[in-house]
Specification:
single chain, alpha+beta, Serine Threonine Protein Phosphatase 5, Tetratricopeptide repeat, Immunoglobulin-like, 2 domains, five-stranded mixed β-sheet, three-stranded antiparallel β-sheet, globular
């Protein structure tokens, strides 16, 4: 929902009729012979039934259908078009064109992807080249990791993620994460947050299959660099949520927490969909030394069949001084997502400190 209570437009409306007209107008501006009418007819046919990714594919397909040029000639038009498009997401139809029609021209296509990525991202398109020619593609992407443009450096990491959302998995990289290790090592202290997020997400992908490989990698890094430390923290987030001792140790929170939790509360105790709850408590140190703490909480979501499934959320990481008390609070809106539907019932909530469950409470969710 939007802030005024009305439904937000569907993501696929990024490629609505007005946007198609924009693409046609801007393409005509850089290539006057462009048949805008034919493009719009082809691109808008059955548009309502298409998902956002299908609409993106339709745009590149329509450009290919209408442009009366060979591949290299079409790329020149699309290169001129890229900076004129008014949406970074929409510009991703241009890398999609490369992936769809440029498999025969590796060098030309990869250079085009490098150029287009600055306007949106070529992360989806480059995977087709990784899948068809892994060694050659990775060799080039290792060079991209040294590029002065942070969009290009980010593409090296994001494009080679084994489990990139909305894309197919790179089975070879998933089976052997060391194939992309040189890219990640080169970017482990990158000054760009955009790049660091990608490196962390790449490594977090790998933890799903090869957690020890990621831990070995991160344990070999110097975390004195603040950028490297940031990547390590976010790369290990799934393992930390699982209470993995090695991951917690990397974060300085591997020791048992010598604390007690006081006044653990959920307010309100009964909530309807769309409303929010607030989890609050105090954490008090029981020892005369500072402690590094990683605090998470888990909600046991009730499923349709009455069983429960736990979802862990990050809460707070802190250094708690000797014999001191820190107040912790988190507000969460109870609403349905495409990945999570709430069911009525009592939902247990557990507070975990350094991977150990130390307190529990509950909230009653009403869906009717």
């Amino acid at each position: 929902m939007s802030v005024n209570g009305t439904a937000a437009p569907a993501l696929k409306e990024i490629f609505n009729v007005e946007r198609l007209q924009h693409i046609a107008t801007e393409t005509s501006a850089v290539y006057p012979a462009f048949n805008a009418k034919a493009f719009l007819e082809h691109a808008s046919d059955g548009l309502a039934e298409l998902s956002v990714m299908q609409r993106m594919a339709r745009v590149s397909e329509s450009l290919h259908t209408v442009l009366p040029l060979d591949y290299e000639g079409s790329l020149e038009v699309l290169r001129a078009l890229a900076p004129r498009l008014n949406s970074g997401f929409v510009s991703m139809c241009l890398p999609h064109y490369v992936a769809s029609y440029g498999g025969h021209a590796f060098d030309t296509s990869m250079q085009a992807l490098k150029y287009f990525t600055a306007f949106g991202s070529s992360e989806f398109a480059v995977r087709y080249f990784l899948r068809s020619d892994l060694e050659r593609s990775l060799e080039l992407m290792h060079d991209w990791a040294r590029d002065e443009n942070h969009h290009v450096r980010r593409l090296a990491s994001e494009g080679s993620r084994p489990r990139l959302p909305w894309s197919f998995r790179l089975d070879a990289v998933q089976a052997d994460p060391s194939l992309a290790a040189g890219i990640l090592d080169r970017l482990k202290a990158d000054e760009s947050l955009y790049v660091r997020k990608s490196v962390a997400n790449h490594l977090n992908d790998v933890t799903k299959v090869h957690p020890d490989w990621v831990l070995d990698t991160v344990e070999g890094w110097s975390l004195e660099n603040k950028h490297t430390a940031w990547i390590a923290k976010h790369a290990l987030r799934s393992l930390i949520k699982q209470g993995n001792l090695r991951a917690l140790t990397v974060m300085g929170a591997g020791a048992k927490a010598e604390v007690e939790l006081l006044d653990v509360q959920i307010a309100p105790a009964v909530v309807r969909l769309g409303e929010s709850i607030t989890l609050s408590f105090a954490v008090r140190s029981l020892v005369p030394v500072d402690q590094r703490l990683v605090i998470d909480y888990a909600i046991d979501y009730v499923k349709a069949n009455g069983s429960t499934s736990a979802k862990v959320f990050k809460l707070k990481a802190l250094t708690l001084p000797a014999f001191t008390t820190d107040r912790v609070q988190r507000r969460q809106v109870i609403k349905d997502f495409t990945t999570r539907k709430h069911h009525a019932g009592r939902h247990a909530i557990h507070v975990m400190v350094n991977g150990e469950r130390l307190a529990s409470t509950a909230v009653e969710i009403i869906t009717a």
